[in-house]
Amino acid sequence: MENKYVGPFLIVKKLGNRRQKVYHARQMEQDRDVALKFISIPPTVEWAKALDKIEREVKELQKLQHPNLVKVYGAGVDGNRIFFATELIEGESLSAVLSRRGKLAPDLVVEYGRQIAEVLRYLHAKDLIHSKLTPEKILVTADHRIKISDLRLNRSKRRRWDSTRQHKLDIAAYMAPEQFSEGATQKSDFYSLGVILYEMLTGKLPYAPDTMGRMTKMKINLPVPSAAAHVMNCPIWLDKIISQMLSPDPRKRPHSARAIALAFEEIKNIDATQKAAVAQITGGFNPLTAGQDKTEARRLLGYKKPKKRKNRDTLFFQRVPFQVAALILIGATTVYFLIPPSAEKVVDNARIMIHSDDPDLWGKARVKLQPIMDGGGEFAEDAEKLYYLSRRQSLVLGAESGLSNRLQNENVQAFGKAVRLQQDGQDVEAREIYSQLVTNIDPEGRDRHVYEESKSRLEKIDQQEDLPTDVSELSDLIAIARDASTHGQLLAAHDRLARIVYKFAGRDGYEAIVAVATEQLQIIKRKIASDEWSEEGEPKATDDGENE
């Protein structure tokens, strides 16, 4: 799917493992990189119902804000596929980390566990659960920040509208035993976290995923495994809390995510205290001899002061003058490359990028132009023009490609609909939408690119339909406009009369025609603005059931 468009997104590359359909994509309209995950809908669920459910679900997910949660931007439809658009995280999944490293150090396990517990604490406070927490859904950044992905609106002991009875074995390995019969709860999330902690410490799962039936029985009947039995340096406190999480009885697991997070904080404090004590002992620290001369200490340990080398034995690149000169050269080079390019150069480069055939370069150009626009100055106006030219190009590309999605604003979606109508030869209907966009959009606002392109297409449609110059033929057109009854006919009549007034106003011999067209235009404007018309374009019914 690389280099293909899905809605307003350009697919860059695939992310994650082969089973999950997750891609790195570029959202051209918003100038941002996102992650796209495609989901499958069970065949038992009606398609229209699925779209409605997901749309409502996304609105709730967008409200969730936590530093360890992947942000949800929205959802869209591409053919018969549904996808979620989320924050793109620079990092890798915990499963990839474990696959590469085997297992992690206890202090890192404690820190990751604390962050995951904080996320669960946030979700549980909102009466939500994750229910399917696995290393594949835990992302790790370079600075060891945890990000939880694949969140859905799961609630305790409530079956999802799109859930199935079948469970994949690799996911079931992290699920609590009660999830297969009674449904997931907050305590089920704690069990999943326990399995993940155990795997991070030992490099293996507590119960081998042999078959679904045997694995479930092992989780219920076998003694809770000990991570300390496999890891020599596992802190006893960490082993104890993991064992509690892996208890088959939910009542014996920790009572809250807050308690787990506090426990991890305490483990970190204990570990830090022990490390400080060990460092002092191994470092030869003695409060009775603190402050003694280090020279005497070296002498007693048998260290001898090294003889100073003569200057003639020093290699040329080790001599002070050479090193000073090298430092000056390095400093000058660094300053040169750190000096940002001038606004004029940025604008010139952006102009080249925008006039290329690469949509990805258009988006990159907008990113470079944004600071110049916001900062004002001599080149701010040029930057602004190029910025909206780029947005206009992306708008047209997305619309003409037939891409529809629910992540764009109403104006962009309406423009896309008008373009599709034009492509189907329905210029009258397309003209109606363009006219509404030109009327409603602020020419200087954020959607000015939609305004400008709509206006341009509106003018082209008008040029294709030349008005007659004969007075009697113009009178016939005014009469047709006068007979307009439906909402759509009124809009078309409004546009035709407006063009007559615009074209023939001030021309000799057309004064009467312009006056009649102007009068009829005002009547139609009042009808359109009145409450006489339903959203479907038909006259509204009166209280007794008859049309007005």
User: Radius of gyration, Cα only, in angstroms?
Assistant: 34 Å
Largest beta-sheet details: 6 strands, antiparallel
Question: What is the CATH superfamily classification of the largest domain?
Answer: Transferase(Phosphotransferase) domain 1
User: Number of helix segments?
Assistant: 19
Q: Kindly give the count of domains.
A: 4
Structure in words:
The protein is of the alpha+beta class and 548 residues long. The protein folds into 4 domains: 5-87, Phosphorylase Kinase, domain 1 (2-Layer Sandwich); 91-273, Transferase(Phosphotransferase) domain 1 (Transferase(Phosphotransferase), domain 1), CATH 1.10.510; 343-463, no CATH class; 471-529, no CATH class. It has 19 helices and 9 strands. The chain has helices at 47-61, 94-101, 106-125, 169-172, 186-202, 212-221, 236-245, 257-282, 294-300, 320-338, 343-354, 359-375, 380-400, 410-423, 427-440, 448-464, 471-482, 487-504, 511-529; strands at residues 5-6, 9-15, 22-27, 32-39, 72-78, 81-87, 91-93, 138-141, 146-148. The strands form 2 sheets. It has a 6-stranded antiparallel β-sheet with strand order 1-2-3-4-6-5, covered by helices on one side. Residues 276-304 and 531-548 have low confidence and may be disordered.
